[in-house]
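Posted in: Structural Biology > Protein-Ligand Complexes

Title: Requesting predicted complex, dinuclear copper ion in pocket

I'd be grateful if someone could produce the 3D structure tokens for the following input. Sequence and ligand are given below.
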Amino acid sequence: MTRFFRPRQLVPVLSVATLPLLFAACSGNYPNSTFQHTTEFNRDLTSLWNQMMWWGLAVFVIVETLLVYVIVRFRRRPDSPEPRHVHGNALMEISWTVAPALILAIIAVPTVRSIWKYQTPAPNGSLQIEVIGHQWWWEFKYPEHGITTANEIYLPVGRTVNFTLRSADVIHSFWIPGLGGKRDAVSNQVNHLWYTPDSVGVTGWIGSCNEYCGASHANMRFRVFTVAPADFDSWANHQKAKAVYPPPAPDTVAVRQVAAAPAPAPAAIAEGYVFPAAQRPAHVVPATPIPAGNTFTEGLTGDPQRGLAIYSRSACIGCHKIDGNPMSIGIIGPNLTHIASRATIAGGLFPNDTRHMQLWIKNARKMKPGVTMNSLGKGEFDPILKMTVTVGGLTDQEIADIAAYLQMLK
Ligand code: CUA
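-- Reply #1 --
Done. Output follows.
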């Protein structure tokens, strides 16, 4: 005999079954959620989403209630007579056509309004940032300040930022989920994206590429720090200054007076504001493991002045620019002018520390698949050129010196 569950027996089972769903929805904070209320853009997005969700929920509840009612009320019983045969019901058919059309129309109004709002040009006085996607890193320019940087953006809280998006090669897609977005960066068209970060809470964000663009698409990230306007000004004023190492003597007269004393070792370049490392939220600190097979001689101490000399006569200068080092004028790689002030290297893949910098210089192509930067370490195998670096290769000591020089470029 078939066993039938009574409806009231099903209630506890269904209730328990829905609990995991409820708990999953409240099981932590999601810093990369686009439903953060940090800009007008993602607040509008949340509002749109909620409207659609509530309409969808209402439809779901009505349909499921009717369905369950019909299943229970008209279920087959041992003594059920043959049901009445019907064909069509004009009223019901019109209702279930008109009702969804109405709901879609109601949803369309705020949707289209939002699309138009964010397709208009950014308000006057917006902070302009030019974004250029490269395989596989991000170049950022602040034309108002004359800054070119890579893989890291500082934004002042309260000022609208207008991103101008382009690509140097294939299609990339620019997205900072915590602030709003996303939009494609295309080579033959300029796209725009604007919003106003107004959050004074969490201030460190992750941005990423969201259009498949080749071997290291997943390794094309960047960091964003929304900071107080005064901190932004300090950062920007410092970033636009040249990074001259060793720093020029403060005052030639004073130097002449102390000429008899031994010259102190040149200090690092004085720093502007940088987002404090200790306050960076855990999710913006990269935890990428060092790929197997990458090693560096332990215990070497780099000499920054020697590093400056080696850097300035090595292949580095053909691809990288350091404003303040007249030898370093390349533009196809990331601008390194204030590299030491950045939180990450390699398109946000690794933290910017001595060990990762050394390994990166030694064999970038073994650290991140497909990168343009050649393997430079003497005796290293270059996986793209399929050959071992011999003539012109850098020893670990030379690499340690170059890394020490780069770390002076605060
Ligand atoms: Cu650039 Cu994916």
